[in-house]
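Session log. Operator J.P. requested a structure for one protein chain; no other inputs attached. Running the standard single-chain path with token output.
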Amino acid sequence: MVTEDLKGLYENARGLCEWAGKPAFVGRVSVIDNFKGSLPNGIILHILCHKEMNVTLERIKTTPEEFAPDPINDEEGEAMLQAIFNLFQKWSITDDEAATLLDLPVRTYRRWKAGQPGRLNRDLKARLSNLLGIHKALRIIFVEPQRTYDWIKARNKAFGNQTALDIMLGGDLTDLMRVRRYLDAERGAW
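Structure written below.
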């Protein structure tokens, strides 16, 4: 019976909304029970248990908006690069390994590490983002910071008994992304 009453309320509200040119309707209704339910056309109705209560019907958007990430600007990229230098130190990796992870010549990496960074292109910013994402996921997974840093060089069955560093040293951006995807799946989605 409540459902039939609600359908009638919905039809009346829809008519008034169309007449008023608005997506919402407020009216008065008497109800006995709590009811929360969905009605056609993306309208949600929630009635509380009171003798007389304002009822609000409102149209909700049911299609997600397209996601378009903002590009990393140069200032953010430089801050990320400084964080990566610190992270590489914690990971105890060599300059050769670091240069491979960033897809830079070793001389360029050493010059940048010494405080003379050059232009950060889109690929490099993506690499920085993935490396920091790996670090973030490890910080979420492990409570002890040292385990976070040691994991990179620990053998892992998920990588065919190779280390995450071995995988990332493949040199491609997709190698970094593979490790990051694995860790994001391990820590759980947001």
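Operator note: Strands lie at 24-29, 35-39, 43-47, 53-59, 155-156, 162-163.
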